[in-house]
Amino acid sequence: MPAVGGIVTNGNKAYPGNLTPFVMMTCIVAAMGGLIFGYDIGISGGVTTMDTFLSKFFPGVYRKKKASADTNQYCKYNSQTLTMFTSSLYLAALLASLVASTVTRKFGRKPSMLFGGALFCTGAIINGFAQAVWMLILGRILLGFGIGFANQSVPLYLSEMAPYKYRGALNIGFQLSITIGILVAEILNYFFAKIDGSLGWRLSLGGAVVPALIIIVGSLVLPDTPNSMIERGQREEAREKLKKIRGIDAVDEEFDDLVAASDASKQVKHPWRNLLQRKYRPHLSMAILIPFFQQLTGINVIMFYAPVLFETIGFKNDAALMSSVVTGSVNVAATVVSIYGVDKWGRRFLFLEGGTQMFICQVKILPSTSFFFHHYFQLFMRLSAIIDS
């Protein structure tokens, strides 16, 4: 009985269940947890191009930015402190993710989402009222801790709530929220940059409070998942909850499999060591290499630093911010297409299509590196073949 997306299936067996309004509402609210991650991805790059922000916290960068136009635009943003402001969030998120799974398993998905939202809200408030660089970095660290917990618990919650036939689409709802958060942040940066004084960047950074409050309220009103209740010994309550979620009474088969999977997982004494066993190496390799090569395309640089990148190639401040809005809009549109097609066309099709599209774009943008991307594409095709097998 392999676990698929947090819900157990026995081979190719599909459990009965309906896409009830109850499930739709809970999944929509839970998916809003992606807003906090998306908002911070989109907000930091735009804020670091605002003159009022740079002049207050990074005067050296501001002076280089206003220096002679002959200076390379990229070099003007060469500051370790500025880089620390941006990267501290993601380092903190990495550290938080190492403990978030344990917290989520022992205390449930809802407390993990609540804790993540509270940390994120605190970090947003500190950043919005920041008076020194250390306050910016402290706020970003708290934001990162919040993202680490939310990014671990929300996708798991969605997987466990979603019916078998709609699990792919509802899971991508989290990614849709991320892309919407990025787009909203980029739009706000464009308008807030026009505000004189420090109010503009404070509104951009402090605006992260809004998605934080959404996930906090959501974690308080959302129901717990049957999987989480079974793990904590609440089996009869879990059975009734599963009936309500699926919209049918015939849930005994799925419930029994969930209980069996929970009991089996408790018998595993060394889960991390088991991952290194030979029979699990293909799964472990896929789990590492797929996101690794996705990040290697440079998409994170584009999402995090889009306004800065556009400025370095000659765009004015307004044009750079608007260009990042266009990029974010395309990102949202592509995610909507994925939601439509993930259960209709399959995961492998989207994987191949997305990889091929990225390969073509990389070769088009950087023709001098086509040799490297040729080998990257060959390895990508081998990975897809392993997935298919």
UniProtKB/TrEMBL annotation:
* CC terms in the record's Gene Ontology section: membrane
Which InterPro entries has this protein been placed in? MFS_dom, MFS_STP/MST-like_plant, MFS_sugar_transport-like, MFS_trans_sf, STP/PLT_plant, Sugar/inositol_transpt, Sugar_transporter_CS
Q: How does it sit in the membrane?
A: Multi-pass membrane protein
The listed locations are: Membrane
User: Taking every annotated instance into account, which residue ranges of this chain make up the domain Major facilitator superfamily (MFS) profile?
Assistant: 26-389
- In terms of one coarse class, where is the protein primarily found? membrane
Q: Name one GO molecular function term.
A: monosaccharide transmembrane transporter activity
Q: Which PROSITE patterns match?
A: MFS, SUGAR_TRANSPORT_1, SUGAR_TRANSPORT_2
Q: What CDD domains does the entry give?
A: MFS_STP
User: Per UniProt, which keywords does this protein have?
Assistant: Membrane, Sugar transport, Symport, Transmembrane, Transmembrane helix, Transport
Transmembrane spans: 22-41, 82-100, 112-130, 136-158, 170-193, 199-222, 284-308, 320-342
Q: Which family does it belong to?
A: Belongs to the major facilitator superfamily. Sugar transporter (TC 2.A.1.1) family.
Q: What's the protein name?
A: Major facilitator superfamily (MFS) profile domain-containing protein
Q: Which organism is it from?
A: Trapa natans
